[in-house]
Amino acid sequence: MNKLKVAWLLLGSLMAFQTYGQKSENIALEEIIRQSVEASKQLKTEQTNVEIAKSRYQSIKEARLPEVSASGQIMYLPYAPNIVNKLSQPAAEGSTSSSQGFPIPKTVSLGSINASMPLFTGFKLKNSITQADLGVEMSQIAVGMKTEQVALQTIELYYAIYKTKATIQVLEENIGRAKQRVTDYGNFVQNGLMAENDLLKAKLMKSNLEINLEDAKNSYENLLNRLNIYLNTKYTSLNPQLNNIQKPVSPDSFLERKDLSLLNKKIEQSAVNIELARANYYPQVALTGGFINAYIPNLFTITNALNFGIGVKYNISSLYKNKSEMKTANLQKFYSEQKLEEAKDQAQIETLEAKRKYLLTLKKQEVYEEAFGQAKENLRIVNNKYENGLADTDQVMDAEIQLLQSEINKKVGVADQEIAWYQWLQATGMLLENFKINQ
């Protein structure tokens, strides 16, 4: 009994070793999209831009805090300075020196701390903060746009793998029948019941199917490698699953699209730029303060000379120079509004085309289903005729090729239908909401 347990353990360990590092799963589309969003390098780059915008916003907010600076210097005086003492008696008439009776300093030491806090900047500081905040929102919208692109790219790749694998399965089934036909025809030729030319036709059909199968397998491996790179995974085989659910009709509204939201934010930003340009017409007022220390050896010392007051600055040239900046800011806003209207027209076109494409795939699928049934019935009839000597091998093979193509069309058509559905969602701006992906 113990030996039996040991044998089972060894067998299990061997199987585990053989499958280690390989992943072959029936994985749902939602899980693949989640993995792609988490692993996307493009998204990580966009998210870094969000952090940059947030840091810039915080930096501009800190401009409201007082500006404090400290300075100090020691100066050497190589020549005797001319010192005028206003508190002393007037110098004698004709005197050429105002520093008589004073020691001559060789160095001067100065130190000061100054502080300034803006009180009024013509609303420039307020609008700069608003502009930075809009920059954060725009970078977040850009992340949503990139997330949507990554999700749609993953969806199309997922269904491309499904279609390729479905084609491989159909080809493998038909190759099995083609091999059996070659065997049967070979026996007929050996027994003198069939011409060798018919056997060669059967072999040629089998060879063509095998070539198509190898092409499909190569496409499958390429698609799987691309998916592994995007997801940073190591799937050796993937079995995509169709949703096979009745989907509700997507709305025709496209106002939730990220590109339109981004353009709306650009219009808001342009309006803020107008206010920033207008701020140049206003004076700047700041509260100032500080204290000064000064030391001149053998002459005087000043310590803790506290001072405070209000500083006013006004750029008079802005009265005639700022008109062009105002004009530029207004034109930029008008340009952004025009781009928004242009984008709305394009979004409407894309939404209607995506809707029509989805409805077309529904009609095509109905035709594919009908054609598959007709191809099966046609093959049955042709086989009956062939058995009764009323049809030749060419007709049989043509009927089988038609059945093969109709079966591939039927399986691939379902995937095309679901791809078109998600493309419609993307055109209306609701793709991420459908998968409940945080933006």
Describe it for me?
The protein is α+β, with helices and mostly antiparallel strands and 439 residues long. The chain has a single domain (25-66, 121-282, 318-435), classed as Up-down Bundle (Outer membrane efflux proteins (OEP)), CATH 1.20.1600. It has nine helices and six strands; from the N terminus they run H-E-H-H-E-E-H-H-E-H-E-E-H-H-H. It has helices at residues 2-19, 29-39, 41-61, 124-190, 196-231, 258-278, 318-387, 393-428, 431-435; strands at 23-25, 67-76, 107-120, 235-238, 284-296, 300-313. It has a four-stranded antiparallel sheet with strand order 2-3-5-6, with no helix packed on it. Helix 2 (29-39) crosses helix 4 (124-190) and helix 4 packs antiparallel against helix 8 (393-428). 20% of the residues are buried.
Index terms:
single chain, 439 residues, alpha+beta, 13% strand, two-stranded parallel ribbon, Outer membrane efflux proteins (OEP), transmembrane beta strand
Topology record:
Layout: H1 2-19, E1 23-25, H2 29-39, H3 41-61, E2 67-76, E3 107-120, H4 124-190, H5 196-231, E4 235-238, H6 258-278, E5 284-296, E6 300-313, H7 318-387, H8 393-428, H9 431-435
Parallel strand pairs: 1-4
Antiparallel strand pairs: 2-3, 3-5, 5-6
Pfam families: OEP
Coiled coil: 199-233
Keywords: Cell outer membrane, Coiled coil, Membrane, Transmembrane, Transmembrane beta strand, Transport
